């Protein structure tokens, strides 16, 4: 490595126009500031590390930012009574939310074209339904903006057995402020919405929420 | 097989990049040319591997190979041919392939160009470039693999975001990424300068044209982004201070500052520390920008998975900033200025002010962009920072920058004499003030508009005056007019290229001013056959038509437009309904003009076609923004012409 600061490289490539009205430039390797120790040496020695250190709070903020989902807008519905609805099920019959008082209800809004999130969560929801249906938990699927044929195919693919029905005209999704699919609402035994989840439901999330709501009511 | 082959290609490339980066560094440290050569071979192989992976992904798109997850999420059987190719950069994973491919291409160019010319910097530059490549290849293999296999294979894919199905979106990311990746070259040279301790001006002179090219593509990317926003999003604007836009704008601001401050270092041997700081910041911001614009954290709804990708990017940004600034601190003793600032009235201080304002603008944009995070982290409250904040703080900064654009190139170095000031600025100031007064008499009362007008005229006058004087000098020496002017442009391409870019920016500034100050808009509901008037235009609603397109359903309105009683055009704004989207997408129709655009957006309508709501905007002077972009292109092209050897 070179021992002296080399700055007299081929620097003089300025165009001629810059020369007009100029004082002469420093001689190459100009004598200013070389060799002589500036008086503030001690401060510089430690102060210089302030530059890299000043980056740290910024990195901490970004670390926080990368962990949060900026689209997770807290739903104003959380904590409020869930809007009642009556769903015409695909396999006949109706399901009314009012009839489910006293049970923990998981309302899932989905669509067959919602790929990949709805495909990821379908096995989770079905598995959860099978495990918890005897413990007072109901999973309800609301299929929005879909064709019946595609929806039935989807349900067959994942052997969906929990109650499912279409939402013609989007009335239920409007009541629940559904912005996209999938969105899932966890409703407690008293009929209040306790949690809204945007995106695919995971095993941990499902179990965690359902267990929490089951414990509360008993 | 496609996912596995693709994954293997990227994984092998990752191994080679790690090896190559280390080999070049060790080769440089111990002076072993064989290692450096081996690293070169690795770089070549990486280029081939990434190119192959990219082509494989394009092939998967063209053949609807839904076994590749990325293909299934970004295309479906209805996606038109060209958009199946451009879907490659429709989301994060594919964008990163494109990024890496460009970076590997730049690495090859550096090998070809500097292998023997820059024996000291070169191996370090190679090492840094390959190190950055290794990061992106790591992202491609671990947190965001473009070649992830999807089981079971779905019958059809989700489809490309309809907003991205537009020509603007074909070119915008490419230009933006060329800008982003372009800044890695000056960054790599800066790191090489710090590693070798040769922190003089050499790294700056070597990378000057690279910097201009990167800056130009970044500018182009921003402009095309504005163009896309204007003619696709249907809100009638081109810039919204959206976090994604800000993410691309911040490196532009610091990059612009860098472009100017390096001239001071070349000239006066000061600002060494500052220039290194700027390039590290700019590069850091390009990485941040790549992540924000394409991570899906800010854009695509509901495909967000809180994966590990944020951690990877954060780690890399930390490495760049801490490593970069750490090196700067370690080399602090070599970064002392060899000159000093002589006077406040000098070119140095004009450039310094320009830098301070640009960095201040970058800081306010950054602050506004991350403030919601800060607020959430500290107070737990979600807030949003909108256009009013950004406009309030940035308008004065940009006006000051325009003023400095007039002063900087003409004021004398070191200390400006009264004579220098009088000679260069008397007439431009007079003309600028006169122009503002003239517009005031014409009835323009908006103070900000008058100020901006006056400044733009002032700066234009400085440029014209300078060019006039230089031409006159050549005419005196016996040249004819056109050869004299042409000769000036080519001989002093760097100076006049810069001036032409400035002119482009001025034209853009006028467009921004005009569209903000004088645009008018109105929204109304019309029955069929009914008309309504705005700013001299008469817009009549003639009916609706519905049609089934390859991958969406479209409702088109027919509107007959007359201007001052003269029939002008029939316009067809529409609404597109994509099955995979929740909300319909507006298809804007507009008549473009130099003075104003007539811009129609179809709103709600009655299903029987008897009634429609239409938003009509008369957007003033927006075309100047696109025109300014063209001028800017010419200027940048002029500025990167090879330097003429002077006799």
Task: List the SSEs and their pairings.
The complex is a heterodimer of chains A (218) and B (647).
Chain A: H1 41-47, H2 50-67, E1 86-88, E2 94-96, E3 104-110, H3 117-132, E4 137-143, H4 148-157, E5 164-166, H5 171-175, E6 183-187, E7 193-198, H6 203-217
Parallel strand pairs in A: 3-4, 4-5
Antiparallel strand pairs in A: 1-2, 3-6, 6-7
Chain B: H1 2-30, H2 33-62, H3 69-74, H4 81-86, H5 92-114, H6 122-141, H7 167-182, H8 184-196, H9 202-232, H10 243-268, H11 272-294, H12 309-330, H13 347-379, H14 387-407, H15 418-441, H16 447-476, H17 481-491, H18 493-518, E1 520-527, E2 531-534, E3 537-548, E4 553-563, E5 566-571, E6 574-577, E7 585-587, E8 589-591, E9 596-605, E10 611-620, H19 623-639
Antiparallel strand pairs in B: 1-10, 2-3, 3-4, 4-5, 4-6, 6-7, 8-9, 9-10
Helix pairs in contact in B: 1-2, 1-6, 2-5, 2-6, 5-6, 5-7, 6-8, 7-9, 8-9, 8-11, 9-10, 9-19, 10-11, 10-13, 11-12, 13-14, 14-16, 15-16, 16-17, 16-18, 17-18, 18-19
Structural write-up:
The complex is a heterodimer of chains A (218) and B (647). Chain A is α/β, with parallel strands linked by helices. Chain A has two domains: 14-68, no CATH class; 75-216, Glutaredoxin. Helices cover 33% and strands 16% of the residues of chain A. Chain A is built from six helices and seven strands; from the N terminus they run ααβββαβαβαββα. Chain A has helices at 41-47, 50-67, 117-132, 148-157, 171-175, 203-217, and strands at residues 86-88, 94-96, 104-110, 137-143, 164-166, 183-187, 193-198. In chain A, strand 3 (104-110), helix 3 and strand 4 form a beta-alpha-beta unit. In chain B, strands 2, 3, 4, 5, 6 and 7 form a six-stranded antiparallel beta sheet that branches. Chain B has a four-stranded antiparallel beta sheet with strand order 1-10-9-8. The longest helix of chain B has 33 residues, at 347-379. Chains A and B meet through helix 2 of A and helix 3, helix 10, helix 12, helix 13 and helix 18 of B.
